[in-house]
Design goal:
It is a single chain. By secondary structure, the protein is of the alpha+beta class. The chain is built from 18 helices and 20 strands. A five-stranded mixed β-sheet has the order 12-11-10-13-14, sandwiched between helices. Strands 1-9-8-2 form a four-stranded antiparallel β-sheet. Strand 10 and strand 11 form a beta hairpin. Helix 12 crosses helix 14. The radius of gyration is 30 Å and the shape is globular. The C terminus is likely disordered.
Length: about 650
């Protein structure tokens, strides 16, 4: 199944007010069911003797701690509130209860690793974003009890099309039921513009006009999802905080269809070409760069090396974003303090002024903006919870703008990660191996650097791309993880000699065979010769030293050294030369004579520049990008590097 996001036009005040009341009613029922679920979970864990004597199933049955039990609780809440019934149907209440049960089930029953989720608790209004719909019946005609999509793509194009293109107005007109074949007009026979409707309410039907995405590449996507109405399966109503939208919320209908998502012919052709590559590669990832080196598995081809790293543009963009966040957070704090002055103490300066006025016999001055800490008890816990504070409209508007900006940054990061992963797989193929490392451990020390480079996002995109290529080619497993205990890529040379290196040693030099290069590139080259007995178990990974020795004999030390050094010095961004060690003027970089395709960076943008080469060979010390990634070390301008293809 796949999902298509359809923006909804709710500029009409009556429609927007009714839609807001639908969300308010759904939130009320969902919150009531969440409270019931939490109370029943507490009673379940308190009945330890009954669970030991009668069994957990009997206790859950007595408490109604099941899917059907929570659904009937939602029905009772809905029947007990007739005013809510005007904006909500029992089918929607049932699906809201099913969502609460999914969270409760993850708490009651541990997963495969034995971990449980926390106890369910009532959620907040600002975090409530989705009203799940009910799937249509594909066996009975005209069986769709909640949100459903009416109309057709042809009817929408006939109403808003000009010369084969969509020309939708700024404000979509109201949609009424139309039928060309029958005199009786109904939504089941509507063949005009697309709209999402909700019937069965106490008043009129909720009709939400659909605004189709426009653009030169949108037409094939819309035809894939909307041409065949028999594939339409389910619709969820989703809202996002948007300060620029009317009412502060932007609404979407997520249409789920029975079938795979749309894949463009260019992507299919690119994945077919990548699936035909007979290569195996290793991926070395850290907090500041991602390095991929692959070797051919057949008689033809040469080894290829690619490198994606943080640059000075990364740090500059991240610093600017952090400055905006700090300023916005100060504005939010001022707004909260002004709206809740009784929950904050006076600052030392304000307290000294109050003491002076009291000693002089002057009346106290009412402070509208206390600058001290939160009023708390002896344990440091605030007397009143933050969620019970009075928040102004300005505060909510700033929070909405922050949420919208964060969502935009996340989507942009995912897009750049997918583009980068596609460029890497097109060169190195889908047979890649990466070390089995926990990025959460890195965040304890390199949190700021991880936020700048997002290695987890890059690995996730690389895993999705390799899996898709392997599935389309019918061979390979995609990106697999290899344990580090038996392989130790960074501590070995390609010849099999163990070369111990500390974290600050960024250069590899083997005294046995003479292989010299960047630590990450050599580690990725060693990882390209890793094999796994069981791909699902990272601990079964071993380095095939016979294949590594064959690669060393095939290309030679000089060719490998030149290839790794060439991949290390490639750049796709603006060059920032390091200051001279004696204070002299740095040498201007010279453009490289060979040009190759570059992969997009995962954070920030910069114009494409000619590739540069450094003035001198880097010495064995911590590189500037890793020094910048650690918040406790001195900062220097980051170096630039890019993607290198070496046939």
């Amino acid at each position: 199944m796949s999902v298509l996001r359809l923006p909804l036009d709710v500029h009409e005040p009556r429609v927007r007010q009714m839609l807001e009341r639908v969300f308010a009613a759904a939130f009320t029922i969902r919150r009531a069911v969440q409270r019931d679920a939490r109370a029943r979970v507490n009673a379940y864990w308190a009945a330890c003797r009954e669970r030991a004597a009668a069994g957990p199933d009997a206790v859950r049955g007595r408490l109604g701690l099941s899917r059907s039990g929570l659904e009937h609780a939602a029905y009772r809440h809905l029947d007990g509130a007739p005013h809510v019934r005007r904006y909500l149907t029992k089918a929607l209440a049932m699906h809201l209860a099913d969502g609460v049960w999914e969270a409760t089930e993850r708490h009651l029953f541990p997963d495969a690793t034995g971990r449980r989720h926390g106890r369910p608790r009532p959620g907040g209004w600002w975090q409530f974003a989705t009203i799940p719909g009910r799937a249509r019946s594909h066996t009975r005609a005209r069986k769709w009890e909640t949100f459903r999509l009416v109309g057709s793509l042809a009817g929408h194009g006939a109403a808003f099309g000009r010369a084969g293109r969509l020309w939708q107005p700024r404000r979509m007109p109201a949609v009424t039921a139309t039928a060309a074949s029958e005199p009786v007009r109904s939504w089941w026979d509507h063949d005009g513009p697309l709209a999402v409707i909700l019937t069965g309410l106490g008043g009129d039907d909720l009709v939400l006009p659909v605004r189709l995405p426009q653009g030169p590449g949108r037409r094939p996507v819309l035809e894939h999802y909307l041409v065949d109405p028999n594939r339409w399966h389910k619709i969820d109503l989703v809202r996002h905080r948007d300060p620029g939208a009317v009412g502060g919320w932007r609404y979407e209908a997520h249409l789920m269809i029975l079938g795979p998502g749309y894949t463009s012919p260019a992507v299919t052709q690119r994945r077919q070409a990548a699936g035909q590559l007979l290569r195996r590669g290793g991926v070395d990832v850290n907090v500041s760069n991602l390095t991929v080196v692959s070797v051919p598995t057949g008689p033809d081809g040469g080894f290829a090396a690619s490198r994606i790293a943080r640059t000075g543009e990364h740090d500059a963009a991240l610093a600017a974003e952090r400055l905006r966040q700090r300023r916005r957070q100060r504005a939010l704090d001022r707004s909260r303090r002004a709206a809740n002055p009784g929950q904050y103490r006076l600052s030392p300066r304000q307290q000294r002024r109050a003491d002076r006025r009291h000693a002089a016999g002057l009346p106290p001055v009412q402070t509208t903006m206390p600058g001290g800490p939160r009023v708390a008890n002896t344990a440091g816990i605030p007397v009143r919870a933050y969620r019970r504070d009075t928040l102004t409209n300005t505060y909510q508007r700033l929070r909405g703008r922050a949420a919208a900006d964060g969502a935009a940054r996340t989507r942009a990061g995912h897009t750049r990660a997918r583009i980068t992963a596609a460029a890497l797989v097109a060169v190195h193929g889908a047979g890649l191996v990466v070390e089995d490392a926990d990025i959460r451990v890195w965040a304890r020390r390199w949190g700021r650097g991880i936020h700048a480079f997002t290695p987890g996002m890059l690995l996730a995109a690389l895993r999705c791309e390799t899996t898709a290529v392997a599935a389309q080619a019918g061979r390979g497993l995609g990106l697999v993880r290899a344990g580090t205990r038996r392989t130790a890529w960074t501590q070995h040379c390609l010849c099999g000699q163990r070369v111990p290196k500390g974290l600050a040693d960024r250069r590899h030099h083997c005294p046995s065979c003479g292989l010299t290069g960047d630590r990450d590139l050599v580690a990725a080259l060693v990882g390209a010769h890793t094999v796994l007995t069981d791909p699902a178990e990272p601990g079964t990974a071993r380095v095939d030293w016979d294949a590594a020795q064959a690669t060393l004999d095939r290309y030679g030390i000089e060719a490998i050294n030149g290839g790794l050094q060439g991949a290390l010095t490639e750049s796709t961004g603006t060059h920032h030369p390091d200051p001279h060690q004696h204070g002299g003027r740095p040498r201007r970089p010279q453009p490289a004579t060979n040009r190759c395709q570059g992969a997009r960076r995962t954070f920030g943008t910069s114009p494409r520049q000619p590739r540069m080469s450094p003035a001198t060979t880097p010495v064995a010390r911590t590189t500037p990008e890793r020094r910048d990634a650690h918040p406790g070390l001195s900062t220097k301008p980051g170096t630039t590097t890019g993607l290198r293809h070496r046939p």
